[in-house]
Amino acid sequence: MIWKKNKTPEQLEEEKQREIDREINKSSKKKNDGAKTHGEILRDQITEALETYDKNSSSILLSSFAAGLEISFSFLLLCTFYFFLEGRSDETEIFKTISLVYPIGFILVVLGQSILFTEQTALLTLPVLNKKRSIGSMLKLWGLVITGNLLGGYFMSFVLTWLGPRLEIFDHEVVEAIAMHVLHGTVPVIFVSAIIAGWLMGLLSWLLASSRDTISRIVIIFLITTVLSFAGLHHSIIGSIEVFSGFLVSDQIHLSDYLTFQSTALLGNAFGGAIFVALLKYRAFIFNIGN
Q1: Per the CB 3.0–4.6 Å rule, which of 45, 54, 153, 235 could disulfide with 241?
Q2: At 208, which CATH number?
Q3: Which pLDDT score, from 0 to 100, does residue 19 have?
Q4: 198, 269 Cβ separation under 8 angstroms
Q5: Range of the domain at 268
Q6: What are the pLDDT digits (tens) for 105-144?
């Protein structure tokens, strides 16, 4: 006891970290055919995140660019269904109905294992909390992922706003209506909405780690992302495509509107994923370990 009391704060911290790592690693030795334990999910999440940290920057940028392209299929379906329902239902009913096709892009991204910022936010925070990576390395990785996601989205915005009217599957008025719907609300409202959206996307990543088969994963993605759309919560990547596309075709939407929305939604999503999921889930596990 005397020896323990004479330890420096740094030594006590290192000892505590070794104990945390031992508890997390115990999960890898358990044989459990049922639901995964908290420790198993945490171990899997940290392992997956570390694999992402160890990837080449070009690989991360390309994968995140692919995610920006793939999630755009949600926008394509939103516009197409809106155009199909226009005149048959009022606008409120249309926006509630098209939320059912909103998950398609997310399913393509997640099952295709491309890197989407909002799904990775909480995941990439866990190694920092576990002292395996630094905050600087996390922010650098976030920057790469966001850049790739946005570039992919910009490219598809140009393609879809050109293609839609020519295929006669939607027109520019539909694109404008969707963008204006996303922009509805003050900056504080969008920020809090984005926090909740980031929270849900972080939970999505956590729940996916707890599932063991593809059908369960599809159901989880569908449920979480349908809630996002039905409730009108703000997602920074699909929202970027919606608002940027509106900026391309509408005189009512200016670059300043897009930049204000995008910065607000990104900050909210990051805060919601990192704080409400990564920190809370991690601390909940740590509090179970004796001091």
Answers
A1: 153
A2: 1.20.1080.10
A3: 60
A4: yes
A5: 38-286
A6: 999 999 999 999 998 888 899 899 888 899 999 999 999 9
